[in-house]
Design goal:
Blueprint (H helix, E strand, L loop, with lengths): L1 H18 L2 E4 L5 E4 L1 E5 L2 E5 L5 E5 L5 H4 L22 H6 L1
Antiparallel strand pairs: 1-2, 3-4, 4-5
């Protein structure tokens, strides 16, 4: 039973780096599975594996799909401003 549990744990730990891959979408339709992707001035650097680092211009990469925002912050709308000297409608009619 312990051997089975250890084998299952080892498989889960070895599969984790594969699941952590990031996809880079090229404008021509290709897709690259990368370990890491980052941007510098006018360039996109793609670490495909520990030995291969590719560099692309931003014109070659579909930037919206590759660097999509996953967690957008929702801005709360400020409450409508009520003037300080406003008179409620019922009070205005009673006068």
């Amino acid at each position: 039973m312990k051997k089975l549990l250890l084998v299952a744990l080892a498989l889960c730990l070895s599969a984790t780096p594969v699941m952590a891959a990031q996809l880079v979408y090229l404008k021509e339709g290709g897709v690259i599975k990368a370990k890491s992707v980052w941007r510098t001035k006018g360039k996109v650097h793609v670490l495909v594996n520990r030995d291969t680092l590719a560099e692309f211009s931003t014109a070659e990469i579909d930037m919206k799909r590759t660097f999509a925002r996953k967690h957008r912050k929702i801005r709360k709308q400020p409450a409508a401003a009520v003037p300080q000297n406003a008179v409620p409608a019922e009070a205005a009619v009673a006068k």
